[in-house]
């Protein structure tokens, strides 16, 4: 799954904080895969400001291919479905 910087941040933010033991491992793996590396932080000028993540404008569309298995897709789908049911989807989560 190819995700740009904003999609990676949004993916991390929608993943559940609590789950069963097996799913928690998958959620942790997804978080780690979507997180920024030290190289990306330097190259894309990634910073945080309170609860916001910022980067250089030219880095906005940089994509990373994140390996997501079948159960990971189910977890992401469940999280997005929950947001949809609660009418809490945003323009930022739309592309996920």
Overall description:
This protein has helices at about 5-15, 20-35, 40-45, 70-85, 90-95; strands at about 1-5, 45-50, 50-55, 65. Helix content is about 55%, strand content about 10%. It is globular, with a radius of gyration of 14 Å. Strand 2 and strand 3 form a beta hairpin. The protein has one domain. It is of the alpha+beta class and about 100 residues long. The strands form two sheets. The chain has a two-stranded antiparallel ribbon with strand order 1-4. Strands 2-3 form a two-stranded antiparallel ribbon.
Described by strand count, sense and barrel closure, the largest sheet is: 2 strands, antiparallel
Output the radius of gyration. Answer: 14 Å
Beta strand %: 5-15%
Shape: globular
Return the domain count.
1
SSE order, one letter for each helix or strand: EHHHEEEHH
Low-confidence stretches: none
Mean pLDDT, to the nearest integer, reads 95
In total, how many beta strands? 4
Structural class per helix/strand content? alpha+beta
Q: For the largest beta sheet, what order do the strands appear in spatially?
A: 1-4
Helix content: 40-55%
* Helix count, DSSP H or I runs of 4 or more residues: 5
Short account of what is shown:
By secondary structure, the protein is of the alpha+beta class.
Short key terms for the protein model shown above:
single chain; 96 residues; alpha+beta; two-stranded antiparallel ribbon; two-stranded antiparallel sheet
């Amino acid at each position: 799954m190819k995700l740009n910087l904003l999609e990676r941040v949004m993916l991390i933010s929608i993943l559940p904080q609590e789950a069963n033991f097996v799913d928690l491992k998958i959620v942790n793996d997804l978080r780690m895969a979507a997180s920024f590396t030290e190289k990306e932080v330097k190259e894309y000028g990634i910073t945080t400001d309170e609860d916001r993540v910022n980067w250089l404008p030219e880095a906005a569309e940089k994509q990373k291919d994140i390996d997501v298995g079948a159960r990971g897709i189910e977890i992401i789908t469940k999280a997005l479905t929950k947001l949809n049911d609660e009418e809490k989807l945003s323009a930022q989560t739309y592309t996920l």
